[in-house]
Amino acid sequence: MAAFPLNVISMVENVLHKYDERLDQRLDERLSDTHFASRKAKEASLRRNEAAKWLRNMVGTVGGRDLPAEPSEEDFMAALRNGIILCSALNKIQPGAVPKVVEAPSDADVLPDGKALSVYQYFENVRNFLVALERLGLPTFETSDLEQGGISSRVVNCILALKSYNEGKLITNGLWRYGGNVRASNLIKPVMSKDPEPLKESFSSANSDPSHEHCEEQNKITQEYKPSSEAHNSGLKPASDDEEMVDNEDVEAKQEKCDNVKYNAGEERSSKHLKQLELDQQRKESSEFPKQQDLVEQENEKNKILKQQLLAQIENKRSELLKQQQLIQQENERSMLLKQQELAQLENKRNDLLKQQQLVQQESERSEVWKQQQLAQLENERVELTKQQQIVQQEKERSELLKQQQLAQLENERMQLLEEHQLVQQQKNERINLLKQQLLSQQEKERIQLLKQQQLVEQHKESIQELKSMVYQTKTGMEFLQKKHQEEIIHLGKQLHSIASAASGYQRILEENRKLYNQVQDLKGNIRVYCRVRPCHHNQTSVSNIDEGSISLIIPSKNGKDGKKTFTFNRCFGPNVTQAEVFADTQPLIRSVLDGYNVCIFAYGQTGSGKTHTMSGPNNPTEETVGVNYRALRDLFLISEQRKDTIHYDIRVQMLEIYNETVRDLLSTDEIRNSSLNGINVPDANLVPVQSTADVLSLMDLGFKNRAVSATAMNDRSSRSHSCLTVHVHGKDLTSGKTIRGSIHLVDLAGSERVDKSEVTGDRLKEAQHINKSLAALGDVISSLAQKQQHIPYRNSKLTQLLQDSLGGQAKTLMFVHIAPEQDALVESISTLKFAERVSTIELGAAKVNKDSADVKELKEQIANLKAALAQKDEEAEQFQHPPSSKSDLPVLKSQLSSTTVSSKSGSRKIPRDDSASSLEV
Ligand SMILES: Nc1ncnc2c1ncn2[C@@H]1O[C@H](COP(=O)(O)OP(=O)(O)OP(=O)(O)O)[C@@H](O)[C@H]1O
């Protein structure tokens, strides 16, 4: 839109310019014919030169480089056409008169139409200059006057007026006013960039005829043009609003609409002023050239017609321009659309580019990260390599140092060796010299030493003689010593022999010891009777007193006076005596079994008197309450263990029962045939080897179980049968090789109550009869043994047959007589005690004599002597087992042995069996 006014302006300017050219051409043609023309030209030239000179002085040669000192009219106009020199000169005179002077070269470069812009720029500078002149009240000229064909005289006049103004100002110190024609400054508005003044000025210039008629004619033309222009631009404001339109430069649309109005109406006000100035100028000229006025008036009429023609042409041109403007507008819209499309495409491309840029950026970031990682890794490797290089370097340095040290050391060593070599060489030489000297001195010494050796040989010969005599003496002494040693060895042999004989006598001593021990036991009586009274089951007891060897019973009488009967035995045990105390007196018999004696311990008494309690203990016995059987076997194994170094014992167990004269093996379920009994033993019965007390106890349990089974079947048969536990001992002396046989019967007899009192019949009677018979047979055997009869009735019962080997002359028998203390058992107790006393009295008949006879005293003395001898032999045996280390102990041993031999004479009653002496066979 901005290009449109410029094009129009330029077009109009061209039209006007052509018109002015023709007009000037006509004027020049007319004036050239006259004399006046030459004078005018000359005068104009002078005035122009003056103006040029003054301008050059004002702006300087640099600023006025395009303006020669005496320019031609064309050069003058060309130099001032851009208005720069004019504005600069005016600003020198009146600073700030032209606030903005546009420099042509820079603007011409920017805009495409340089020429149009130059014209515009010229116009703007020139216009501002003219406006400033008007403010100062100075004469002005038309802008077109600067163009070719313009009126240069008006320009020159204007410059000379300005010169006069300057000179006056200098003289009056700024108070001078040009020609007194000072006008109000607001009469003419400053020319702006889009102001339509150029058009108006063009018109003004076209009407710038010197004559006043020409000006009026020009005004008419303007008035004629104005209605048509208003008709064309209907709706626009009238010319009176033109100032407001000029001020509102921002509203472009309004300005465009007002262009035509401004074009037609222009600034009538400014035109009036210009015309006024022109008229003044014309008056001047007309006064100088009055003859020319007529010609001008004629010419003006012609010009009027030409102007009308020109206006018609302008109108045509303008309509064409409008059409072109519409086309241009359409073209602009189309180009706008194209531009928008292009913009959209560009936007898409820009987005694509942005995406690509983002991708590229991401890729670059990723590559940057990768690069950084690579760099870090390379840095690490570099650091590592640096470290390794440092290490290698250090190693190199170290090895270099080592090499140097080694070299230095080698050098030192070499030097030392060299020194040593020199030293050795020196020493060698010295030694050679020394050896030479020594050799000489040694020859002398050897000679002296030879003499000394000869002396020594002499001395040695003497010494050898002395030694020979000493050897002889020593030999003699050795022979004497040999004899002495032989005598001592013989003496020692004798001593050794005596020791050997003493050792061999030890076995004899031991045997004698056993014999003496058993003799002591024999002196106590082969059949010993111990009486034991069990606790009373209720308060009425028949036992009044029990001491160590007697028991007293209360015998009620019919006359109310109770009697008392005392029985004497080897030992009597009251109801509170423990099992251990009862066994204490039994213990020596167990030792006799291992010495080769046969022993029989049996319990006698009526039913319930305590026989089983004594022999086996109560049911579920404890260590304290176990009976004689267990304790006897325990001692048996204990002693055999003590003697295992000298005697090896083989122990076997047999357990039998005799019921109604029938013998039964309790360790077997089979009944033993009676025919097998040979009077002393039961060879068909099981004989079980045992190694310990536990083995015997398990066998006893088995036997008691078998007996209990039978008792269940036969109604408490245990009370009416005899049970017998037999232990057979076979010993072998490990030193002498002799064998020893012994046995012990542990018998729990059946109840001894009499048949008549029990008043039983049938089987019970038969049982009682068998019991009485066997017990009576036992009494008879014991009685026969006591009386030392030729015939001993063992065969009267199975019991005596079974116990035959233990009731013989070489056996030892112990009978426990049991008493029930209750009064209702008194008769049985008395009967039992009488039986036991008979046994005891018969065997211990001597005891009865023991109170008064000399034989008893003699026997007691023998017992004392034997005990002393036994104690002495025990000591000897102890000493023999631990012989004295010195020779001085031997006489003591000899004396002990001699004393033993003496004391052994006393034992003579019974000799234990050995293999040859044993008459018992199993
Ligand atoms: N010295 C004693 N101390 C305590 N109690 C005893 C003693 N003697 C026997 N008794 C008890 O008396 C009761 C009978 O004893 P035991 O059975 O030993 O008599 P017995 O003579 O063996 O009888 P039987 O002939 O019927 O076998 C048992 O209960 C037993 O525990």
Q: List the ions, cofactors and other small molecules found in this model.
A: adenosine-5'-triphosphate
The coarse silhouette is elongated
**Count of runs of 4 or more consecutive helical residues:** 25
Q: Any idea what the CATH superfamily of the largest domain is called?
A: Kinesin motor domain
Cα-atom Rg, whole angstroms?
92 Å
> How would you state the average pLDDT, rounded?
73
> Which CATH first-tier class of the largest domain would you pick?
Alpha Beta
CATH architecture of the largest domain: 3-Layer(aba) Sandwich
Helix content: 55-70%
Number of strands: 12
Point out poorly predicted stretches.
1-6, 106-116, 180-267, 672-680, 843-855, 884-922
CATH topology of the largest domain: Kinesin
Strand content: 5-15%
- How far the N terminus sits from the C terminus, by CA atoms, comes to 167 Å
- Our count of domains comes out at 3
Q: Biggest sheet, in brief?
A: 9 strands, mixed
GO molecular function: ATP binding; ATP hydrolysis activity; microtubule binding; microtubule motor activity
Domain Calponin-homology (CH): 45-167
Protein name: Kinesin-like protein
Keywords: ATP-binding, Coiled coil, Microtubule, Motor protein, Nucleotide-binding
